[in-house]
Amino acid sequence: MFFSPQFSLFNKTIGKTDFVLGWIPIGSSVEIFGKTTDIEEQRAIPEQDLPFAFFTKKLYQQVFIVFAPTIVYSIGVICSYIVLKSQNELWSFDYIFTYLKEVVLTMFGNDNDVLALKTLSNKYVGENNIVVFTYFLFSCTLLFCGLIDNFMNYLRLSASDSKIKNALTIALMFLPFIFVGWKVPALIFEYYTFGEFFNYLIDFLLGMLLFGSVLFFAAIIVLKLVKPKFLLR
User: Fold this and answer.
1) Whole-model pTM?
2) How many Å apart are CA 85 and CA 92, to the nearest integer?
3) By C-alpha distance, which of 13, 53, 14, 47 is closest to 32?
4) How far, in Å, CA of 121 to CA of 111, rounded?
5) Mean pLDDT of 130-150
6) How do residues 160-211 score in pLDDT, each as one tens digit?
7) Is the separation of the CB atoms in 81 and 96 below 8 Å?
């Protein structure tokens, strides 16, 4: 959970799984054992560990694991939408697509587009639900990146190996970066003043650190109570 350059806030090995809590509360990752299509790497895995390797799992299990983040992001989008809909009857699926389209146009537009986006935001979002609304947009961004990652996983795990597939995989790697690393931050700096952005950023990082830490330790407690096979190895 989170990034941990130089040091981590918590690092514990349970069974043969390393649980690490980082100190930069942006992003999380799971290094899945045996998630490789390389024959030599598969052969290097000890025979007693093969039942736990990703490539030995059934297809539906692999699909569920690969799509798990996208499922979570989708739940986040749906739940935040339900909350926003309950607070403002103007909310609808048509509005969602209209607003997201306006966001994308603003990313590639000018100051007039930023003003139009602010006007649209003020119409549908009040101060009482700004946190939920921000979470909704954040979840939509993660869902978009998750879908791209799922497609890239499909390309990497597919049996065929062609130059076209490799080129498409590389191209897709840059698509989330263009939005998350460039267009989204640029839009934020156009939408907010530097002071507002700094205050929101500090609140966001502290909130993520607190919320993520609670989820991290809660997951460890649940796993110890349930004791799945990978913790008993």
Assistant:
1) 0.70
2) 7
3) 53
4) 15
5) 82
6) 566 776 677 777 777 777 777 777 777 777 777 888 888 888 888 898 899 8
7) yes
∠ CA 231-223-68, rounded to 5°: 95
Write phi, then psi, for 21 (nearest 5 degrees): -110, 110
What are the structure tokens assigned to 120, written together?
């649209």
Q: Residue 111, class by beta-carbon neighbours within 10 Å (0-12 exposed, 13-18 middle, 19+ buried)?
A: exposed
- Look at residue 51 in the predicted model and tell me its pLDDT: 87
Which residues in 15-129 belong to E strands, given as ranges? 17-21
Question: pLDDT tens digit string along 10-64?
Answer: 998 887 889 999 999 887 888 888 988 788 889 999 988 888 899 999 888 888 8
Q: Tell me how far apart the terminal alpha carbons of the chain are, to the nearest angstrom.
A: 22
Tokens 């509005």 correspond to what residue?
95
Residue in the block written with tokens 């330790």: 217
Beta-carbon neighbour count of residue 151 at 10 Å?
A: 13
Closest to 26 in 3D by CA, of 196, 141, 155: 141
Distances (CA, A) of 194 to 107, 115, 132: 18, 17, 22
Q: Are 73 and 139 in contact (CB under 8 A)?
A: yes
Phi, psi of 12, rounded to the nearest 5 degrees: -140, 135
Report the 10 Å Cβ neighbour count for 199.
12
For residues 137 and 143, give the distance between their C-alpha atoms in angstroms, rounded to a whole number.
10
157 confidence band (pLDDT: 50, 70, 90): low
What Cα–Cα distance (Å) separates residue 174 from each residue in 107, 152, 203? 16, 12, 29
By C-alpha distance, which of 89, 67, 71 is closest to 79? 71
Q: What is the average per-residue pLDDT within 104-133?
A: 77
